[in-house]
Amino acid sequence: MKFQVERQALADAVSWVARGLPQRPPMPVLAGILMVVDADALTVSSFDYEVSTQMKIDANVDTAGKTLVSGRLLADITKALPNKPVEISVEGSRVLLRCGTSKFSLPSLPVDDYPALPKLPELAGSVDADEFARVVGTVAVAAGRDETLPMLTGVRIEIEGDTLTFAATDRYRLAVREMKWEPADPGQSTAVLVPAKMLSDTAKTLAGAGKVNISLSAGSDGLIGFSGGDRHSTTRLLDPDFPPFRKLLPTEAASTADIETGALVEAVRRVALVAERGTPVQLGFEDGTVTLTVAGDDEGSAEESLATELAGDPIRIGFNPHYLLDGLGAVGADSVRLSFLTSTKPAVLSPTPAEDGEQDSYRYLIMPMRLPG
Question: Do residues 7 and 88 touch, judged by C-beta distance below 8 A?
């Protein structure tokens, strides 16, 4: 095997594929990146029996073939190469890489032991790549990270005709958002649970691809695939069991407050500087003002006030500052609306409705913390 590629194209492909490499591979070969060369292209792949990633780039091919090398090492090397054409060849059990005056000789892994990569399932539909990345990013922030509760580490995707609904929760907050898409079958109705980290990384990387095709196979061996441009990835679906999240979203509010999002973010960050672990940021709403307070014993205390438009009864409520900042960062609007029932029941963050009454579908429900005293 021998071929030449552009350095930047190779670095991008290897970096994309390396995202799917397992941190603790159950088999040594699964730590490798597979390079397959045909008549005029190089296909770079990784697979760990759960997630597969693949990207194809143009190559000037002298001899076709395939080889397997350490993925992390290859990613580090290609990132550091000078901006010159790269030549890769295989001699015996070594992979030789040349770029300008830089030369590397890497041991190859047993390519025959590498598992066959899964094929993309049947096309389910397509979405705008940039909107897909935005929606996934604002919902995945609420997904859990406790691997002992796998159903909370995923993002639920519900398909109803031309509408996709995304939802994620870690029991302390819940994020929900809808978007339109172009279904292959306008009458399809289903729901799947996709690992949040994989979905978030994939959506972010495919942003700018124009369209993202979503492929889906249901059943006990469920698989979902995402493809855009010359990149595609697949992952096995999680058990579809998921909390009935719609029942958690309040249908009414005793009070609402509209606040400039950027100003509230900066104020929360400042007062949270003195917040000890487990200490809430308290928000007191009254007479067109919200007062943010943190009262700590060892680190000190802080207070700041902002203008707000309050509708309803005054209220004082406390939140985990990190969860609150995550929600404010995901709202994606200049003004945020906080909706309350009582100081002990979940509050909901959403973009303030536009002047024409149009309402964004995003909802970020956050559990309050017990206030001192």
Answer: no
CB-based contacts of 24, cutoff 8 Å, min separation 6: none
Cα separation, 30 vs 357, in Å, equals 52
pLDDT at res. 209: 85
- What's 277's domain CATH number? 3.10.150.10
Beta bridge partners of 366: 173, 347
**Whether residue 226 sits in one domain with residue 257:** no
DSSP state of 368: P
3-state DSSP assignment of residue 247? helix
**Model confidence at 240: pLDDT above 90:** no
- Structural domain contains residue 372: no
Considering 193, 223, 246, which residue would you say is the last residue of a domain?
A: 246
CB contact at 8 A, 42 and 59: yes
Does 90 lie in the same domain as 192?
no
pLDDT tens-digit series, residues 293-345: 998 766 688 999 999 999 999 999 999 999 999 999 999 999 999 999 999 99
- 185-212 pLDDT, tens per residue? 999 899 999 999 999 999 999 998 899 9
CA distance 116 to 314: 61
Residue 196 domain-assigned (yes or no): yes
Q: How many CB atoms are located within 10 Å of the residue 66 CB?
A: 16
Cα-trace Rg, the chain: 25
Model pTM score = 0.91
Q: Are 294 and 279 in contact (CB under 8 A)?
A: yes
Residue 202 and residue 264 in one domain = no
Residues 6+ apart with CB under 8 A from 207: 129, 130, 132, 133
Domain extent, residue 133, equals: 123-246
CA distance 289 to 233: 48
Q: Which of 95, 113, 131 is at the close of a domain?
A: 113
Task: List all residues 6 or more positions away from 168 whose beta carbon is below 8 Å from its beta carbon.
Answer: 139, 140, 141, 142, 143, 154, 155, 156, 174, 175, 196
In angstroms, the CA 196 to CA 174 distance is: 13
* 240 and 264 both lie in a single domain: no
Q: How far apart are CA 278 and CA 300, in angstroms?
A: 14
Q: Which of 172, 173, 171, 175 lies closest to 199, judged by CA?
A: 175
